[in-house]
Each structure stands twice: as C-alpha cells, then as structure tokens.
Design goal:
With 143 residues, this protein is α/β, with parallel strands linked by helices. Helices cover 28% and strands 20% of the residues. Helix 3 runs parallel beside helix 4 (85-91). The protein is globular, with a radius of gyration of 14 Å. The structure holds 1,3,4-trihydroxy-5-OXO-cyclohexanecarboxylic acid.
Length: 143
C-alpha cells in the first residue's frame, strides 16, 4: 500500500549548496530531493516537498496537512527549531507521525542550537547524517 509523506523545510534551506557548504554540504535542496526520490524508486511512496522561509507559511502548511492522509510529516524547521512556539503548537495537532530532522548534529554546534522547542512536538528526531536524513526518515517508516 502506498505510503505518503510531507517533507517541510524551513528558512535558508532553499539556499543549500550555497549556504556554508562546509557545514551543510554542496548539494542544493532540489538535488537532495532528486537523490532521495532515486533512493526511493523501488518503494511505493508519494513525497510532497515544501519549503518556506516564513514561519506563518510553515504553520499553515502543517495545518493543511491535517486534512491529508499522511503516514508522516517530516520537518526540518531549521532555525525555527530553536524558538518557534507557533510551529510547535501546529505540530501538536498532527495525528500521524512527526519526524524532526536536521542535516547537522546540532549538539556539536553553538550552544543556542541546543534549545529544542519544535522537537517537543515530534515522535522521532534524527540529526547529523547530512543530506541522507530525509531518505532515512522515510525509510524508517518503511521497514
Ligand atoms: C539545521 C540546524 C539549525 O540549527 C539551523 O538553524 C539550520 C539547519 C540543520 O538541518 O542542521 O538552518 O536545522
């Protein structure tokens, strides 16, 4: 049976490839998207990718997802992870699984990245593997 996923990416992730490549790698978000779909080619999955730099748009997209039949919402809230009560409140309404992902291991970075607010609305947190984190989040729901 087909499994459906929504992947939400927050601010500055649209600039992957250009943004601090030594930290985030040199692939763009669309290249990561393509790589992820290739890795999923043999699975019966549908993946909807959404990116916004605007907190309210992310909150609205989470709200819209309540009416969709999803197996999981996978979210990299980026900087909002550390302080957005609005995104946390929205995630608390989601009844399917919520997986918060980060490309980097934020525990090895600046102290201010240790505050994890939106993760309180997640069932699973995966961080640190780089570009493969989106594939791994989906794969974790297929095995
Ligand atoms: C990030 C980590 C956040 O601290 C940062 O603000 C980002 C990206 C990550 O994927 O590693 O924008 O979410």
């Amino acid at each position: 049976m087909k499994k459906r996923f929504l992947i939400i990416n927050g601010p500055n992730l649209n600039l992957l490839g250009k943004r601090e490549p030594e930290v985030y790698g040199d692939l763009t978000l669309s290249q990561i998207q393509e790589e992820t779909s290739l890795k999923l080619a043999n699975f019966d999955v549908e993946v909807d990718w959404f990116q916004s730099n605007i907190e309210g748009e992310i909150i609205s997209r989470i709200g819209e997802s309540l009416g969709e039949e999803l197996d999981a919402v996978i979210i990299n809230p980026a900087a909002y992870s550390h302080y957005s009560i609005g995104i946390l409140d929205a995630l608390k309404m989601v009844s399917c699984k919520v997986i918060e992902v980060h490309l980097t291991n934020t525990h090895k970075r600046e102290d201010y990245r240790r505050t994890k607010l939106t993760a309180q609305g997640a069932d699973i947190i995966m961080e640190g593997p780089g570009k493969d984190v989106y594939f791994l989040a989906i794969y974790s729901q297929l095995i």
